[in-house]
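Hi W., the TXE complex you wanted:
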Amino acid sequence: MRISNFIGGEFVAPKSGAYFPDINPATAQPIADVPDSDAADVDAAVAAAKNAFPVWSRTTAEERSRILLRLADLIEQNLDDLARIESRDNGKPLSLARALDIPRAVANFRFFATAILHHASAAHITDTTALNYTLRQPLGVAGLISPWNLPLYLLSWKIAPAIASGNTCVAKPSELTPLTADRLAQLSLEAGVPAGVMNIVHGYGAKAGAALVEHRDVPMISFTGGTVTGARVAASAAPMFKKLSLELGGKNPTVVFADADLNDAIRTSLRSAFWNQGEICLCGSRVFVERSIYDQFVDAFTEGAKKLKIGDPSDESTQVGALISEAHLHKVLGYIELAKEEGGTIVAGGSRVDRDGYFVEPTVITGLGCDRRVLQEEIFGPVVTITPFDHEEEAVAFANSTRYGLSASLWTRDLKRAHRVAAAIDSGTVWINCWLLRDLRVPFGGAKDSGVGREGGFESLEFFTEAKNVCVKLG
Ligand code: TXE
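Structure:
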């Protein structure tokens, strides 16, 4: 199978004629040829998007909404097909793609299709002198760069608000997981998204991605990916004064106090550690447990981790699939070795699974302090550390002890403490007695090195539009 770029409503080959293989991580076998696009392809896509902008930006919100709702319906009608594609492309369990990735992509299109119908803009009356109102206008061509861990979900998180608010876009999905984006392009034609409104250029980040970030006719960039790449994107976008949203890595704490509902805390923190093989930026990879329940927690958590079923992602009972790539597999295994060198104890997992593909056992590590590299650096795999704490201040200090600040999950029945600790943790999201609950109206993003800017709900509509103040003299 060979996929194409999607430019100006047509599927086209990369101008260079070059392709690279897309690998199924669960078998290590190639499943598709992907365009190795370069600046020339990005140029063509930006030109098509620029061309479509005047008409699309003047299309009524009602009409844009209708088209995007049709696209949401089509994704929903093709849910099973898309979930299978996503699972093969990414290595994640099919059941997870069906329950999480694709339904959330549907929700993204539905939410932003209707949000634009209800988005109000402010008016300020200056006594009897003047009326100021805020005009929110789309900016033009949005550059959207997305990662491989939740491919369609994170791509639609960007495409939906960008085009709902009247921009056109050029999206560059991860080179590791291009297949659902290709299917989305086909569905967009069926839904009646006009040619040039949504363009997709496949290829490597350093080539196609960088060309998009550097393009003069792309005034805004929304990027989700690793922190190192995010810094590179920021460095090239900043001198051109582009609007920039960066959603980057995480090293998220799960903090369990002794008064928590322990069964719920263990069940949910197992999910937050190992769902999607730990390849979700919001995964809880550092667990901190109050000392009085530490041993009990470690025993139950370890037992739960050992029971998780790892294997063929297409098997309905599989809970942990394959890591995204061979390079990532070695990165994750390298951190497990490092944990041993740093003096940690592996109490569950710790090894590659003996089968084709890139599988690593759910791994639980104890005995490491917060300053160890394993607790400081994003591993982005099924590897979690558990560390005891003695009191609330220490729990907060441990939670805040990395350069990341994306999310945190707190477990306690003490209402006052829950609010106090939530306010003291430096992160974009704090979940109390839960994890990954989502309301699309809330602002989403990271603190510290986990990112810049907020997306989600009306924040996304504001990111993808520019506010203009219009001042009218009264009288
Ligand atoms: O992601 P990259 P990688 C973290 C995770 C992972 C690490 C590296 O720790 O191990 O990042 O992963 C495009 N200009 N996360 O290397 O490079 C790239 O093609 C423009 C967390 O796979 O960040 C892809 O489309 N674009 C994260 C996208 O950036 C560039 C999810 C993300 O790839 C580019 C993924 C460049 N110079 C990894 N270089 C999360 N926050 O969820 C690459 N890209």
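Residues 145-149, 172, 174-175, 204-206, 209-210, 213, 224-226, 229, 232-233, 247-249, 281, 378, 380 surround TXE (CB under 6 Å).

W.
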